[in-house]
Design a protein that fits this description.
globular, mainly alpha
């Protein structure tokens, strides 16, 4: 597996490029390679970032639930960039970063509530091909969240599917957002298993 992007990054130019570079340097101290890849098609980059900002600004769905949903989507698809960036965002926005750290292992981790588990299950079910959302799962979330929040959840998972699949196809990988603010590494299945063994040995 290559660690380089499949399309070499190019320079961000123009007013929009300057704004993106300033924002990126403020966030992590440098311009990520992923921005340079998308800079080959400035109109698409603007469109993607624009709809992303609009979907993020919606507020019918609890922000922590939204964070777990998009991270569960990214973990299922295998987009390390999206996982890393959204873990960083959970810290930067004052969300529950310890739970966010455990999202790649939400099935095994004991920190999540029943509703949070339903949200992660829905994100994975939507991300399958073909989608595997059941009437029962949808009804449970409708009862727990209400119609507006469920629609917003669906839209955020759908947009993360687009972003994650595009990044994976282009060879865009994690670029150290979480490392920049010294967050612990995202949990893995091995971490969860080790925690269980350690707890058993402590008894």
């Amino acid at each position: 597996m290559t660690t380089q992007t499949r399309i070499p990054p190019t320079e961000l130019t123009g007013v929009f490029g300057a704004v993106v570079k300033v924002a990126a340097r403020r966030m992590i101290g440098r311009v990520p390679d992923s921005m340079g890849v998308l800079a080959h098609h400035p109109a698409l980059m603007r469109a993607s970032m624009g709809i992303g900002r609009k979907i993020e600004a919606l507020d019918e769905l609890d922000k922590n639930l939204a964070s777990y949903a998009v991270m569960a989507t990214a973990a299922y698809i295998g987009c390390s960039w999206c996982l890393d960036f959204n873990y960083y965002k959970s810290h930067n926005e004052g969300l529950d970063e310890e739970k966010a750290r455990q999202v790649p292992n939400w099935r095994e981790a004991s920190v999540f509530t029943p509703v949070e588990r339903l949200v992660c299950e829905y994100a994975e079910a939507m991300s399958q091909t073909p989608p595997a959302v059941t009437d029962e799962l949808s009804a449970a979330l409708l009862d727990a969240l209400g119609p507006a929040a469920l629609i917003e959840l669906t839209a955020k998972v759908a947009f993360m599917n687009m972003s994650s699949r595009m990044n994976v196809a282009l060879g865009i990988h994690s670029e150290g957002y979480a490392d920049a603010c010294e967050l612990p590494p995202l949990a893995t299945r091995a971490d969860v298993a080790a925690d269980i063994v350690g707890s058993a040995n402590d008894r």
